[in-house]
Amino acid sequence: MLIRQERPSDVPSIRAVTAAAFSGVAHAAPSVEADGAPGEATLVGWLRADPGWVPSLSLVAESGPADPEVVGHVVATRGQLAGRSALGLGPLSVHPAHQGRGVGAALMHAVLGAADALGEPVVVLLGEPALYSRFGFVAAGETGIESPDPAWGDYFQARTLSAWRPEYAGRFRYAAPFDRL
Length: 181
Hints:
Layout: E1 2-5, H1 11-22, H2 39-48, E2 58-62, E3 70-81, E4 84-94, H3 103-117, E5 122-126, H4 129-132, E6 138-139, E7 145-146, E8 156-160, E9 170-173
Parallel strand pairs: 4-5, 7-9
Antiparallel strand pairs: 1-2, 2-3, 3-4, 3-9, 5-8, 6-8
């Protein structure tokens, strides 16, 4: 498996992987397109057109070298944290046929390392605490970061990076396309 930055030719594969990963998932965003794909599949396209898009933080997992195909994708985009730039992660997608093989973990480690190398202070996400705690995520409130929706509780999580300073704490706002779901 190879983790690399997405290429323009990957866009259809990323949409297909994201749609497959979120199809039938109880917490998936409702479809906003005629094809019935989960909202997360459309969201990635909207994020590409947003000023918060960070090309170097849109990563794909590509299967073996013999017949490479995109089997996973993760993206982190710029949001706002108390007037500063901060990263919101998601969606993270792994094709169901490749889940449970470490693809998602490899994507998470790669995107967190890339974000840290770029000097970003923090990455936030909305997800299952038991899953993301193994990557160093904690309930965002523990870092002083307020969720866009208080009802999210401990599912809104943060992973501070090397550039983090406690004075960066405050209310987080995702890139605008998230508000369209």
